[in-house]
Every structure is written in structure tokens, then in C-alpha cells.
Amino acid sequence: xxxxxxxxxxxxxxxxxxxxxxxxxxxxxxxxxxxxxxxxxxxxxxxxxxxxxxxxxxxxxxxxxxxxxxxxxxxxxxxxxxxxxxxxxxxxxxxxxxxxxxxxxxxxxxxxxxxxxxxxxxxxxxxxxxxxxxxxxxxxxxxxxxxxxxxxxxxxxxxxxxxxxxxxxxxxxxxxxxxxxxxxxxxxxxxxxxxxxxxxx
Length: 201
Hints:
Blueprint: H1 8-16, E1 22-26, H2 32-41, E2 44-49, H3 55-60, E3 64-67, E4 82-88, H4 97-107, E5 108-116, H5 121-128, H6 153-162, E6 165-173, H7 181-185, H8 187-190, E7 193-200
């Protein structure tokens, strides 16, 4: 599978993960990202997924998958078990995101997190009109959303500092996962999706 056939945000993450790395993919879905890393970059590791419906697709993608709820932590893994722990577009649905971030850097050397940026100007505009935002990246109504802890890019960086974590790399992209000069200059205002790579200080 060529990188260009990947989901665009996955292609960015693939660039961040060196060949031969050990990877834990939390909320791995159908296993597309880890499967690509295994085939194209000789990665090794595990996916964790709660949905039983996704497990057969993980197996078809050739990954080792564990059926588990990541809200319960990562106690099945020893300290420093992986080079990278990935959490893609799931942070906002986690019950205790700060605890999971700490667990990610207990079992891994580096963490990679992506999430919808609540600081995007469309969200701000809808809030200013007195409504909870509904956008392409946050398509649910307030009463049926799976998202329970929305944050801005600035919020995430403050939390990283409070937890003693160091941001190594940051990208802000639009909903099609494209970058631009404006996104580099005003990431928290213009970025619809945030991507972070971080480690312990």
C-alpha cells in the first residue's frame, strides 16, 4: 500500500515514525495505520480497539489487536514497551485524557495525538451566537456527541507543560488534512485538526 492511499492524517504520522519502530496504536479502528507501518516501515506492535466489529478488519490488515477499553488504562503493558504510542482522533472521547497521556508516556518513549481543534474560528463563531458548534470535524449535536473533553491547541499545550511533557512537533491542518501558510501562522484559529508528537521533558 502506498502512503498516498492512506487517510491523509495517517500519512503525516507515518512520516513521524522511523522504520523499525515499535508502535502501540490506541483506538486503532480497522488497523489501517499500524498495518501500513508493519508492511512499509517494518514496524512491530499492537493495536487496541474497543469495537468488536472492527477486530476482523484489524486482522485482515495484518496487525496484532487487543480488544480493550483504553479508558481503563494500559496496565497490560510494562514501562517503556514501545517507541511510539498513537492516539488518533480519540482524545476528545476519553474519560480522563490527562491520565491517558501520562500512561502513553509510561509505556512509550514518544506519544502522538491528533484531535479536532475546538479553537477553530467556525467553532468560535457558533459559540458567539450562543450555540454549541456543529462542523465537518465535529458533526454531532450536543446531545448525541461521543466527545466529552473538547480542547483547543492552546489548551493541549498548557496540559503538556503541566504534565511535564515536551512538544517535539506540531501540525495544524484543515479538515482535508492540508497545510498552508495561514495554518502555520495562526494554527489555533485556522486549524481544524491538530497533530502533536511529544515526549517527557
